[in-house]
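Standup notes
- HV: blocked on the assembly model, inputs below
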Amino acid sequence: MDTLEINWVELRERARQSATKSYAPYSRVTVGAAALTSHGTVVEGCNIENASYGLTLCAECSLLGDLARCGGGELVAVAVVAGDGAPLAPCGRCRQLLFEHGGAKLLIDSGEGAEPKRLDQLLPDAFGPDDLDTRSNA
Ligand code: THU
C-alpha cells in the first residue's frame, strides 16, 4: 500500500460537518467522525440517539456503516469531534469497534498541535480477529 497523506485539517472539518447531522435530542452532545481509509477515501459518521438510551449509536458506529457502504478497506486515521468542534476521545466500545477495522496502528486525532495517538495507546492488548484463530478450541 502506498503511503497515504493524512490531512488532519480536512478530517476534523469533515467530522465537524458530520456532527451537524447528529441526532442527539437526549444528551445534546452532538458528535461527528471522519476517517481516511486505505483506499484513500474519507468516510463519515454521526451519533444517533434513541429513546431507549442504551441503543444509542456513537458517531464511530455510523462511520463503520459508511465504511462498508463505500466499499470497505482499512481505517488509517480517524478524527472524532463533539459539537463544539473539539476532539473527543472514542468511548471504550468504539475503541474495540475501530480496532476491528484499523488495528493497532490506526491513528486517532488528538487535536491541532498535538500528536495523534495510535489505537494501541488507547486500547492496549486488544482482543481482535487474530485471537479467534489462535484461541479457538476447534
Ligand atoms: N458518543 C459518540 O458518538 N462517540 C463516543 O465515542 C462517545 C460518545 C455519543 C453517544 C451519545 O449520543 C453522546 O455522545 C453522549 O454520550
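- HV (later): unblocked. Residues 8-19 form the longest helix (12 residues). The radius of gyration is 15 Å.
- Next: hand off to the docking folks.
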